[in-house]
Design brief:
Structural class: mainly alpha
Number of strands: 0
Oligomer: single chain
Helix content: 55-70%
Strand content: under 5%
Length: 279
Amino acid sequence: DPTSFVNSTRDTRFKKLAGAFNFDAEGNAQTQRLAQTQSGMRSTMLAYVAAVGDPDVKEAETKAENDYYRAKIEKLQSLDELLADQRAVTYLRTAYGLKESVETVDVLRQILTSDLEDRTSFANQSKNGQYRVLAGAFNFNSDGTVFRETMNAPQDRQDMLTTADLYLRQLMEEKAGDNNEAVRLALYFQRKAPSITSAFSILADKALFQVVRTALSLPDTMSLAELDTQAAMINKKLDIADLKDPEKLEKFIARYSALSDINTGTTSQQSLVSILFGN
């Protein structure tokens, strides 16, 4: 507040003193003002580690980037400060599978200032689900300032949004499965795709494996082979990194949809791509 006591005095010592504590105007303790909660920071860092591939291969580089990001976020005072740091922005793009040519700094600003409780906000309107995840990982107001989390809340904002999203998504998958098993599997695959790190992640999940096997036209008998052989068959036809790209994921699911219809001898009343991506 530019009219507050410390700001009106223009004495930087007073401002630093006020900033070192978390009292409201009545003297009551508040939560700390953080651009990201520990939960949000942890989620972002885990996403970054998953995105760079095998962390053991780039252990020193990954640790250096994680350390830099953590130190940056803990001191962050505004969105402008974050977007002015190219290294931090590159880190976020890597973690959330965003492209510099598409998700420019202006687009990142629109994402991070989105009101996730408003269905018409930028992040909610986008087909890229990662926009909503990214927006929920930070505590920025519409003007780019940092807001405080609710005092003693059982969940921070990101965890609350994630829980609600997962609940609604589960209901949607179950309802879709009552009418069309292929739609249920596709919905499940779309939800799990960002967490797939290798062919072994697919082989460990029966539903994921069914979608991949159909989309890649792999034989049913491949299950009789050794796991390493099965993984090699998948890797030969699929770049796992493509599943983090919304456009490539959409094409992959469209392929699954078409081949699933052919294999079952049915035609979906509404395309899976339309259901999943709103096309």
